[in-house]
Amino acid sequence: MSEDQQVGIVLVSHSAQVASAVAELATGLSGGGDTAPIAAAGGREDGGFGTSSELVSAAAHSVDRGAGVALLVDLGSAVLTVKALLAEGDELPEGARLVDAPFVEGTVAALVTASTGADLDTVVAAAKDAYTYRKE
Amino acid sequence: MLDADFFRRWMTAAHTAVDQEADRLTELDSPIGDADHGSNLRRGFAAVTAALEKEAPATPGAVLTLAGRQLISTVGGASGPLYGTLLRRTGKALGDEAEVSEADLARALRTGVEAVATLGGAAPGDKTMLDALVPAADALGESFDAARRAAAEGAEATTPLQARKGRASYLGERSIGHEDPGAASSALLISALARTAGAAEVAE
C-alpha cells in the first residue's frame, strides 16, 4: 500500500465540539508531519446534541482514500447509527468499520497508526488496544 | 390483502399519532432519558411523510424501506436507527410483492423486531421498545386489534421495570416507576397500524 492510501478516521460524537476537539487533540499528539485523514461528525445537522447519519456518511466519504475508514463513536445513538449505516450496505465507503475502542484514547492510537500507512486491521487493533491501558 | 397504499396510510397515521403525542413522549423521556423522544420522532415521521409523498413507492416493502431510511437519517437520537431498522427490515422481509397478507406482515414484523433486538442488544424485560413490539408481533398473527392491545399492555408493563439498556440504565432503581418512552411510542406505531386496518375494514 502506498503512503498516500492511508486509512481514514471518523469521529462520531453527540457533540460537535467533542468530535472536533478530539480530532484536534489526536492531530496535535500525532505531530511530526502530515497525519492520516480525520474528520469529525458531531451532533445533529441543526447543531443540537445527537447523531446525524448524513454527517457521518459525508465525513466517512471525505476521509476515504481507498484503504478503509475506521469509525470511532461515543454513546447510544452514535453507536446505533453507525451500525445501522453499515447494515444499509451502501451508505459508507467500502471497508468502513465501527471500532470498539475508547473514544479519546482510541482515536489517538488510531490516528498515529494510520499516519504510518498501516492497514485497517492494524489501525483497528491499535485503537482497541487502548482498552487494555488501565488507569488504576 | 394489504397494498402499498395501506402502508402509506399506516405511516401517515403514525406521523399524526406521534405529532399529537409528542409532548407526552417527551414528558416520559424527561425523568429517565434526555427529554427529546417526542421532538425527535416528530421530526423523523415528518420526513417519512414528505418522502412518501414525493416518491410514492409501488410496493408495501418499498414503503417501509423508504420510511426506515428516513428515520435513520433524520431522527438524531437512538430511536432513529432503532425504528429505522424495524421498518427497513420489515420492509425487506415483505419483498417485492404488490400486495401482502396479514400473515406475511406478521412474519415480516417479527423479522424487523428481531433486527431491533440485535442492533440494540436488548431483550424483553429490559424496559425498551421491545417490551411493546415483541408481544405486538406475536399477537399480530391473531388480529390487528390484538396487536394493538398487546403493544399498549406491554408499554404499560414497563413502568415497574428497572432499565437495563440505554441512557435510563445509568439511573438504576430510579428508572423504576416511569413508563419507557420507546415502548410508549412503539404502542403508538402499532395502534396506528390497527387504526389503519380498522378504517380499511369500514371502507370495505
Automatic annotation (TrEMBL), chain A:
Record domain PTS EIIA type-4: where: 6-136
Keywords from the named record: Transferase
Domain of life from the UniProt record: Bacteria
Gene Ontology biological-process annotations: glycerol catabolic process; phosphoenolpyruvate-dependent sugar phosphotransferase system
Annotated GO MF terms: phosphoenolpyruvate-glycerone phosphotransferase activity
Segments traversing the membrane: none
InterPro entries per record: DhaM (IPR039643), PTS_EIIA_man-typ (IPR004701), PTS_EIIA_man-typ_sf (IPR036662)
GO cellular component terms listed in the entry, alphabetical order: membrane
Descriptive protein name: PTS fructose transporter subunit IIA
UniProtKB/TrEMBL annotation, chain B:
Coiled-coil boundaries: none
One GO MF term attached to the UniProt entry: glycerone kinase activity
Single Gene Ontology BP annotation: glycerol catabolic process
A GO CC annotation given for this chain: cytosol
PROSITE patterns registered for this protein in UniProt: DHAL
Cross-referenced SMART domains: Dak2
A Pfam family recorded for this sequence: Dak2
Classification via SUPFAM superfamilies: DhaL-like (SSF101473)
Cited InterPro entries: DhaK_L_YcgS (IPR012737), DhaL_dom (IPR004007), DhaL_dom_sf (IPR036117), Dihydroxyacetone_Kinase (IPR050861)
Record keyword Kinase present: yes
Domain of life, source organism: Bacteria
UniProt keywords, alphabetically: Kinase, Transferase
Keyword Membrane: no
Domain DhaL span(s) in chain numbering: 5-195
NCBIfam families per UniProt: dha_L_ycgS (TIGR02365)
Full protein name: Dihydroxyacetone kinase subunit L
